[in-house]
């Protein structure tokens, strides 16, 4: 009896341990702790201090308050966002590692990045978009897009060039779209960020630049650059007097610089749904929406399915532009 008792006691200890640790099979329904029960890490694949980093920290602070857990921003910069994206793609699909991306995220795979947007990630929400604008140095005698295109066509080859924050940026691809749709000759001059590109057009080292609206708004207002056309389908609140490419007769030139939140592929659907509801409710708060608009963002806050559809559409669009323009990262 003593041996039987000892055996029974050992089995009870094992059973109780399994119940506590939640390691029993599907036949034993053990309730798991509610998500989230520990800090969440939000990877921003760019250096601290940039626009995506600022958005990430604002969103992380609000999400922490809503979810009752810390949301820690981690900057994993490098390779146009590829390093951070790959890290998140390889992370555990438990909802505790998130990725806040910018426009290059959907472009990079067509330029050789080692991740697949659809297979490696679970979209959460399209947080906001950042509009871009084509500007010219004030010495350029053109005030509208038709005038600029006419001027370029009447000039000798290689007369005009355009600056962007870098090869493969959405601003670069917007310029390639313009070249294709308008049939004009423009030489791309890539810089290492918006700041140097803006300095080049302000100093008249290049005649044209395509950069984000927030990065050049103050120079436009000061008269250092002339805004010609913006890249969204509707006019930008920060530049209400500037027409869009669509209004100027180029409906295919609609360029959204994505700011979106994702998780690794395989995160449970209920976790994605909770993260979506939380982030969308934050984006739609009047004070948050107003703050984002003041910073130059156009707040969105979509469903995860809508964001997945947008990512796929953007990927197809830019892959075609990259292929047609024979664009390489070394360009």
Number of helices: 12
Task: State mean pLDDT (0 to 100 scale).
Answer: 87
| Low-confidence regions | 12-32
Cα separation of the termini: 82 Å
Order of helices and strands: HEHEHEHHEEHEHEHEHEEHHEH
Biggest beta sheet attributes: 6 strands, mixed
Count of DSSP strands: 11
Tell me what you see in this structure:
There is one protein chain. With 331 residues, the chain is of the alpha/beta class. It folds into 2 domains: 40-129 and 256-324, Bordetella uptake gene, domain 1 (D-Maltodextrin-Binding Protein, domain 2), CATH 3.40.190.150; 132-230, Periplasmic binding protein-like II (D-Maltodextrin-Binding Protein, domain 2, 3-Layer(aba) Sandwich). It has helices at 2-21, 51-67, 82-89, 104-107, 117-120, 145-154, 170-182, 194-202, 213-221, 269-283, 286-294, 304-324; strands spanning 40-44, 71-75, 97-101, 121-130, 132-136, 161-164, 187-190, 208-212, 226-230, 257-264, 298-299. The strands form 2 sheets. A 6-stranded mixed sheet has the order 2-1-3-10-4-11, sandwiched between helices. Strand 6 (161-164), helix 7 and strand 7 form a beta-alpha-beta unit. Helix 2 (51-67) crosses helix 10. The longest helix is centred in the C-terminal third of the chain and has 21 residues, at 304-324.
